[in-house]
Amino acid sequence: MSGFDPKQALSRRCVRWALVVGLWTFWSTLFTVDLYIGERVKGNEISLLTAELWHLGWGVTWMLFTGVILWLRRRFPLDEGRWQSNLWLHIPVSLVMAFIGGMNFVVAGQLLGYYPPGVAFTLQKGSLFFATWLHLDPFLYWLIIGLAYSAQYYRESRERQIKAAQLETQLTQARLQALEMQLHPHFLFNALHTIAVLVRTDRNAQAVRVVTGLGELLRRVLDGAGAQLVPLKQEIEFIRRYLEIEQIRFGDRLNVEMRIEPGSQEAQVPYLILQPLVENAIQHGIAPRASAGTLRIAAWRDGDRLHLSVWDDGPGLPETLESATGDGLGLSTTKERLEQLYGDDHGFVVENAKDGGVAAVLDLPFQLAVEELGGSA
């Protein structure tokens, strides 16, 4: 019972019994008004205070009965396999409580001087009240039972909803972390491939620089482990470091343009959202060519939307493939992460640009980042 809070449990119990007292007091007051008006119509003198005290005696009786009824409901439930046998216990108990309630009503009238004293009168008048109110008083017993079950079912329903929401959140988080973990080795293997290419071509000094840059990138990846949303400026800084490694590999064959609107840098974006897009553009738009190529990264805000674009001036997608959002691990993982984070409230497409080349375009809700992760320069 690690989650049990005695103070909270006591508070709930106090609220519950305050509600019980309030409801029975209200119920008694309704009968008080009925009695007062009825007696005055008959010409009998009775004060409103006397009528209220009289019915409060009856109300306190049922107030005490409420605790007993709730205990009987838990001890002999009516929603399980033995409900039929338990029902035959509840029926006589409800009749006995109704009879006691009628007797106490008579006793209260005797104490207030409205009825003559005497045990014989109490039994006679109490039996008369029991017969007269047989359609109502036992019903109060079943009303309490019904309200208790309604509260129980509502509480269980809320607990199921909360548990389902928690499980859904945990499942979503697990999926996002799994997708993120796919990016880490994928990114690492590509960087190691770059180092291998440099070593094979006897560019050892550049290979050392790449190893140093890779160490910095890995430190940033580890610093951001578990994060799903980070400031855009942090993603841009990461991409700059990543592109430093790629420019060592490609030299003059890779030209990089950054068009980042100042007002967009404080927006939060999915962690490592740009790296797979940049990697895809380099792999398909820059690497196959012998001539120089251009890679352009842009970010801008349009109202409550944030737009990100990664464009290369490569040969473009084949005519038979108009969109490549499902092509390759990086793009497919990016697509899944966006669906987990934003549902339908996002856009992601990789397509041939109107002015040539291929553009990967993201359309996300614009939300200001709460804080930055550690590790930014």
The major beta sheet can be summarized as: 5 strands, mixed
Name the CATH architecture of the largest domain: 2-Layer Sandwich
Give the strand line-up of the largest sheet.
2-4-5-7-6
CATH superfamily of the largest domain: Histidine kinase-like ATPase, C-terminal domain
Q: Give the amount of beta strand, in percent.
A: 5-15%
Helix content: 55-70%
SS-based class: alpha+beta
From the alpha carbons, calculate the radius of gyration and give it in angstroms.
38 Å
The overall pLDDT average reads: 79
CATH class value of the largest domain:
Alpha Beta
What is the H-and-E element order? HHHHHHEHEEHEEHEE
Cα shape? rod-shaped
| The CATH topology of the largest domain | Heat Shock Protein 90
Low-pLDDT residue intervals, each spanning 5 or more residues: 372-377
Distance between the termini: 46 Å
Indicate how many domains the architecture comprises. Answer: 2
Tally of individual helices = 9
User: Tally of extended strands?
Assistant: 7
Q: Would you give an account of this structure?
A:
This protein is of the alpha+beta class and 377 residues long. The protein has 2 domains: 130 residues, no CATH class; 194 residues, 2-Layer Sandwich (Heat Shock Protein 90), CATH 3.30.565.10. Helices cover 63% and strands 12% of the residues. The chain is built from 9 helices and 7 strands, in the order H-H-H-H-H-H-E-H-E-E-H-E-E-H-E-E. The strands form 2 sheets. It has a 5-stranded mixed sheet. A two-stranded antiparallel sheet has the order 1-3. Strand 4 and strand 5 form a beta hairpin. Helix 2 runs antiparallel to helix 3, helix 3 packs across helix 5 and helix 6 runs antiparallel to helix 7. The longest helix has 64 residues. The radius of gyration is 38 Å and the shape is rod-shaped. The protein starts with 5 loop residues before the first helix and ends in a 12-residue tail after the last strand. The C terminus is likely disordered.
